[in-house]
Design goal:
about 100 residues, mainly alpha
Length: about 100
């Protein structure tokens, strides 16, 4: 079994544990969707780790381009994964902090 398959199995099992007793007709699809949304952005995570570990290898323009793509790609995946697992997730941050 590959590392990716092991991770997907582990995430699927974690979903089952959290949802114990909450299975409905769409359970397996929601579980598969959760695993997808938790893994589709792993290459973005690896790039972020590279940025954090090696900031001297990046210039500001590369960093800006990466961060824009990262936020656009990763946040929707995490939001969806969070809703699939936990239901609604409240925003603990003051919305006025993001208003310009």
């Amino acid at each position: 079994m590959s590392r990716k398959q092991k991770l997907e199995a582990l995430l699927g099992r974690a979903f089952e544990i959290y949802k114990d007793g909450q299975e409905d007709a769409d359970f397996r699809q929601k579980q598969a969707d959760f695993v997808f949304h938790m893994t589709d952005w792993l290459s973005d995570l690896e790039t972020l780790c590279n940025l954090v570990r090696n900031p001297e290898a990046w210039d500001a323009e590369q960093t800006c381009d990466f961060l824009i793509g990262f936020l656009i790609h990763v946040i929707p995946h995490l939001t969806t994964a969070g809703k699939l697992l936990l239901g609604e997730i409240p925003n603990p941050f003051d919305d006025s902090a993001t208003e310009f």
